[in-house]
Every structure is written in structure tokens, then in C-alpha cells.
Amino acid sequence: MNTSDLRKVRWGILGCAGVAAAVALPGIRQSRNGIPRAVSSREISKATDFAGRFGIEKAYGLYEDLLNDPDVDAVYIPLPNSLHYEWTLKAARKSKHVLCEKPLARSAEEARAMAQTCREYGVLLMEAFAYRFHPQNLLVKRLVAEGRIGRIIGITAVHSSGLPSRKADIRLSRELSGGVLMDKGCYCIDVARFLLESEPVSICAKVDFHSKSGVDDRVTAMLEFPSGARALFDTSYRLQDGAYQQGYEVHGETGRIRVPWGFVQLATYRSNQVVATTIYVTDLLGLNTEEIAVPAAHQWQLEFEYFSDCILQHKPIAFPSEDGQLNMRAIDAIYESGQKGLCVTLK
Predict the structure, then answer these.
(1) Among the four residues 47, 207, 215, 254, which has the most C-beta atoms within 10 Å?
(2) Which region, left, alpha or beta, applies to residue 286 given φ > 0 means left and ψ of -120 to 50 means alpha?
(3) Residue 45 β-bridge partners
(4) Bridge partners of 202?
(5) Whether residue 198 has pLDDT greater than 90
């Protein structure tokens, strides 16, 4: 082992998913305190090819072999949603810290068990919502806390695209717990909880399903919070092929803040270009809008640096596994509301 690696988290990656190649690996490699040590796949040829492309030292043909590697401190799990529960538990039992892709689990019950197991084995577990580490979203949170737009009365959000083009895409598989709510809508829920720093008390939702795949392909929901603020979002796979829409707006008593690229920077995801962003703050009457430029940032790099710092410094994380459990609680309620055609009260 190089002495320069002693103060770095040695990462293992379970699976060769597109998100791992597009943003997670670059995030780890560019981080000041992490290094990619190993990758695994159920096909050794895939793992070997992936390791070669990204300069990763070790490749395994079994996930278990990576978890048994003493040179791996933490794992990143970008596996299909249906596998998050199983492999988080197995990783924890091997004393590996876990950064798990969103959504954390298939249900709040699974997320609760994941959190409990990680606590029992003394490892950290965090849901991978990288947007929470981007400076633009931290700035919005600060402006809200400072009262720049007054008390929040509402949040609107959208996160939509065309239908995934590959027939075998995991997002179109019911067996793998796909669907647009788990894929994109979970961001809209999380950003409301992130900014309001509270949990919804009631949810009303309409859930539509794709005629062929059977997964949800459009979800519209309203979440009411204890303060009286309401979050309304729409997420779907019903845009034209190649189209993509995202962003959120915070409505306050004295103004509003619009964040057009709040969740993902496509230039970073698609070509590893780190780009600047802009948020827009509008005054009480809507007559004046201030454009605030935010310097370029690689939000996945910041996410891995934050999580690695917590591991190395033995610090609690600001978004512990219980946070992911609460986001899943809201997702469960949305599906329940859509199924029953009624609003659901959360206790």
C-alpha cells in the first residue's frame, strides 16, 4: 500500500452501472480523500474491462469476493433498487461503510432494517443524493434560513424524461423495483424535506402506469408539511425521446427562488464537464429578479469527499440512514395514495 493512501478511503464498487462510470468513478478519482480500489460484477469480463478503463487495481467476478477484500473500506452500491437491501446488509456484516444509490430501498421497512444492521456493525450508511452537496442547493438553503423570501409556503418541482430507450432497462422492470418515482420523483420528495427540514404529514397522489412494462411512468403528488407549506411535483417518462426536464422553485411569502438545474448537471453526467450554474431570486412583486451565478462544482466528488471525511474522522453524517428511511416512508405513502385514490395521513 502506498503511504499516500493511508488517509484515503479505499472504495469498492458493486456492479458496473452507468451511473458508476459516468459520475461516481470520476467523483472518487477527483476527490482528495478517496481512491477506487476494486470493482465487481457478476461477469468477471465486465469487471475486468471496467477496471481497465478506469485504472482500478482489482476486479472481481463475485460481489462477495469484493466484500471479503481487506483493502476495501467502503462500498458504493449502484445496483438495481431491488438489490440495495441485500447487499447493504452483506456489506455491513463485512464491516464496510455503504454509500447506496437512491432510492435507499424498496420500502421504509427495508430501509429501517438496513439502518439497524449498519448501526449494529458500526458502519455508516448514506443514500446517494449528490445534489445535496452542490453549492447552489446549499446556497438556496442558506437564503431560505436567512429569510430572503420569507416563510416558505410552497415548493414545486419537476423531474421528467422520455421513456428509457432500452427494453431491458432496469428502470422499466417491476421485478427490479423500477418506475419513475423511484428513479426521478424521489429527488422531488427529498428536496422538499431538505429545504423545509421536516417531514410531510399528509400526501395526495395520482400514479399512472405504463401499459407494457407495468411500472409507474407518471406520478403527481402533493405533500403537506407541519408548517402548512405544500410541495407539489410532477415526474414522468412521458416526454419526447431525448427530452429532459428538471428543477425546483421555492415560493415564500415575500419572494421566490428558482433552481433550473437543481438535481443533475447533464454536462457532468454525460461528458464529465463541470459547469457553472445559476439560481434566480425574485422579489415580492415579481418585478426584479437577481441572477446568482454559482461556480462550477462536481457534486458527486463533493458527496464522496463528505462521506469519506466522516469515515476518516469518525464523524456522524448529516444525512444518516434514517433520513433515507423517511424518504422511503413518503414514497410508500405516494404509492398507497395512488392505489387507494385517497390522501394518506402519515403518523
Answers:
(1) 47
(2) left
(3) none
(4) 224, 345
(5) yes
Neighbouring C-beta atoms of residue 145, cutoff 10 Å: 10
Active site residue 94: no
Span 260-313, pLDDT tens digits: 999 999 999 988 899 999 999 999 888 899 999 999 999 999 999 999 999 999
CA dihedral angle for residue 149, residue 150, residue 154, residue 158, rounded to 10 degrees: 20
* Secondary structure E strands in the chain: 9-14, 34-40, 58-60, 74-77, 97-101, 125-128, 152-161, 202-209, 216-224, 230-236, 244-252, 256-259, 277-282, 289-294, 344-345
Catalytic residue among 8, 58, 96, 102: 102
- The residue among 9, 69, 14, 23 whose CA lies nearest residue 300 is 23
Q: pTM of the prediction?
A: 0.95
Query: Using one digit for the tens of pLDDT, what is the confidence trace for 184-197?
Result: 999 999 999 999 99
Q: What is the pLDDT of residue 5?
A: 52
pLDDT over 50 (residue 258): yes
Q: Which residues contact 264 (CB under 8 A, 6 or more apart)?
A: 131, 246
DSSP 290: E
- Residue ranges and CATH numbers for the domains of the chain are 3-129 (3.40.50.720), 132-301+329-345 (3.30.360.10)
Q: What mean pLDDT value characterizes the chain? A: 96
Q: What's the whole-number mean pLDDT along residues 316-336?
A: 96
Residue 30: in which H helix or E strand, if any? helix 25-30
Question: Which residue, 241, 239, 81, is CA-closest to 165?
Answer: 241
- The gap from C-alpha 107 to its chain's centroid, in whole angstroms, comes to 15
Q: Which long-range contacts (CB under 8 A, 24 or more apart) does 49-55 make?
A: 49/16, 50/16, 50/21, 53/21, 54/21, 54/25, 54/29
Q: In this structure, how many other beta carbons lie within 10 angstroms of the beta carbon of residue 294?
A: 18
User: Who's near 326: CB < 8 A, 6+ residues apart?
Assistant: 108, 193, 199
Q: Which of 129, 116, 118, 113 is nearest to 19 (CA)?
A: 129
